[in-house]
């Protein structure tokens, strides 16, 4: 008997197309799986069972009429910082605990148009600020490979929903590694698209010049299919680029023989776990076996400054974006102060968690009079240098390959009291957001029984190249076929 909750999107599509399974049956299987494993992993903030089954019925009617595309009838999960009309969107924060948006995010509209079935919203670090999903104001999400360990963040709930078989695919957002790092920790595929390729309309803003929505899936084919559905220009997002969207799945199988791949030495950082470095070297050797030309002598010298640049720019933008939560217009509101100013102060004191408040204070300080030039302006100049270094590298190489994370998933609570150690978790992913280029994380082995991810980086709008490399590696290995024993 087929286990529906272990199917890839493209495998489920074939069964739906051939009428061997209905979308209602598929959705019921996933909802039953959610009931079974959710008490252990705590990946979902909201499950919309009745609405999901209604969507599944509509999808079955659509399939019966011959109107079917790769996502029609496929059960999906959405990160809880993307607006869903009539469905609570909390950003895993007390500030928005009861916020119900009056409209859908652009990506949600696109999934609905494709006939996908949206089953619920995924837990996350509060307002997407974190690397472990421990910063959720609601509950901590657990890694299905080891329930005592974190799933990564901030899209931890989305990654876990796929890895634990609660959904066929999910959407996350990535500001400094928030799709790729949890993908690595949970042994799934996660893509951060080129900045501007996917509309941010309806995404609750963290750092507007860095945020990007992307897919989390079981394999590379599914990732390409999901990107096909959500990519494209949107006039409602001023940063959306009118770039033609190809069929990303069409490039799969083209092979990588003769492709030039660089390995930037700065990404093999001090403190990287030796087992992770060993797994990466084995993975890179596999790419060479597949015909790629590997160059280990690549340098991106400004990379060590990326962490400092990110933690000036992102908190600065966050302090501006989160100023809207004042207890007046929407969201949590403290009403017991002596006056409106005290109410506003208390709203933020009690509505935001410690990590969010920490970043707001960092950003406000960096933007304050007398410090703007010393911090924010200088960070923007170094950002330009980092982007130029990537541009120069892509004149010579088709893609760059690095570890996604310098470590395997760490234990829950291990880094919670040390923000600097937590921030270092994103050292391999931050530069990609700073430069605005695309990158994908794919399963690349295990170290001490825990997942290791390989990150493939491309030039702007070179997602097809990333999919070619990722698919070639995936098909030559078995890592993506392993499932968490939960």
CATH architecture of the domain at 4-257 and 405-481: Alpha-Beta Complex
Q: How much β-strand is present in the residues?
A: 5-15%
Radius of gyration, CA atoms, in whole angstroms: 21 Å
Low-confidence stretches: none
Structural class: alpha/beta
CATH third-level topology of the domain at 4-257 and 405-481: Amidase signature (AS) enzymes
What's the mean pLDDT score?
Answer: 96
Explain the overall architecture.
Helices cover about 40% and strands about 15% of the residues. The chain is an alpha/beta fold and about 475 residues long. The protein has a domain at about 5-255 and about 405-480: Amidase signature (AS) domain (Amidase signature (AS) enzymes, Alpha-Beta Complex), CATH 3.90.1300.10. It has an eleven-stranded mixed beta sheet, sandwiched between helices. Helix 2 runs antiparallel to helix 3 (about 50-65), helix 9 (about 305-320) crosses helix 11 and helix 9 crosses helix 12. The model has no long low-confidence stretch (mean pLDDT about 95).
């Amino acid at each position: 008997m087929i286990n529906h909750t272990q199917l890839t999107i493209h495998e489920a599509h074939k069964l739906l197309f051939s009428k061997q399974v209905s979308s209602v049956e598929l959705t019921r299987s996933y909802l039953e799986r959610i009931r079974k494993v959710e008490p252990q992993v705590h990946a979902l903030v909201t499950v919309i069972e009745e609405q999901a089954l209604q969507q599944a019925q509509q999808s079955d009617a659509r399939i019966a009429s011959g109107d079917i595309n790769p996502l029609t009838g496929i059960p999906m999960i959405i990160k809880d910082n993307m607006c869903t009309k009539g469905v609570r969107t909390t950003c895993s924060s007390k500030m928005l605990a009861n916020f119900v948006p009056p409209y859908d995010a652009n990506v949600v509209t696109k999934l609905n148009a494709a006939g996908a079935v949206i089953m619920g919203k995924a837990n996350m670090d509060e307002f997407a600020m974190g690397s472990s999903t421990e910063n959720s104001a609601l509950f901590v999400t657990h890694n299905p490979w080891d329930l005592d360990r974190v799933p990564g963040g901030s899209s931890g709930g989305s990654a876990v929903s796929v890895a634990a078989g609660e959904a066929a695919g999910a959407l996350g957002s990535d500001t400094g590694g928030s799709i790729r790092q949890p993908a690595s920790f949970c042994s799934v595929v996660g893509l951060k698209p080129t900045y501007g390729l996917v509309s941010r309309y309806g995404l609750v803003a963290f750092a507007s010049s860095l945020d990007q929505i992307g897919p989390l899936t079981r394999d590379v084919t599914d990732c390409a299919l999901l990107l096909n559905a959500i990519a494209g220009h949107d006039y409602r997002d001023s940063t959306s680029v009118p770039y033609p969207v190809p069929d990303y799945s069409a490039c799969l199988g083209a092979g990588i023989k003769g492709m030039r791949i660089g390995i930037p030495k700065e990404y093999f950082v001090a403190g990287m776990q030796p087992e992770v470095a060993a797994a990466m070297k084995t993975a890179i050797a596999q790419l060479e076996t597949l015909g790629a030309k590997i160059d280990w002598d690549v340098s991106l010298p400004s990379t060590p400054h990326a962490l400092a640049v990110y933690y000036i720019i992102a908190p600065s933008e966050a302090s501006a974006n989160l100023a809207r939560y004042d207890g007046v217009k929407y969201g949590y509101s403290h009403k017991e102060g002596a006056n409106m100013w005290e109410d506003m102060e208390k709203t933020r004191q009690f509505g935001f968690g410690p990590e969010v408040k920490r970043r707001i204070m960092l950003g406000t300080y960096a933007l304050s009079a007398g410090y703007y030039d010393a911090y924010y302006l200088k960070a923007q100049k170094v950002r330009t240098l980092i982007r130029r270094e990537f541009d120069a590298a892509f004149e010579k190489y088709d893609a760059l390959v690095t570890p996604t994370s310098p470590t395997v998933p760490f234990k829950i609570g291990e880094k919670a009291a040390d923000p600097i150690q937590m921030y270092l978790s994103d050292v391999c992913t931050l530069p990609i957001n700073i430069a605005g280029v695309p990158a994908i994380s794919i399963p690349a082995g295990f170290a001490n029984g825990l997942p290791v991810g390989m990150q493939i980086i491309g030039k702007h709008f070179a997602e097809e190249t990333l999919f070619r490399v990722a698919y070639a590696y995936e098909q030559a290995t078995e890592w993506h076929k392993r499932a968490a024993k939960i």
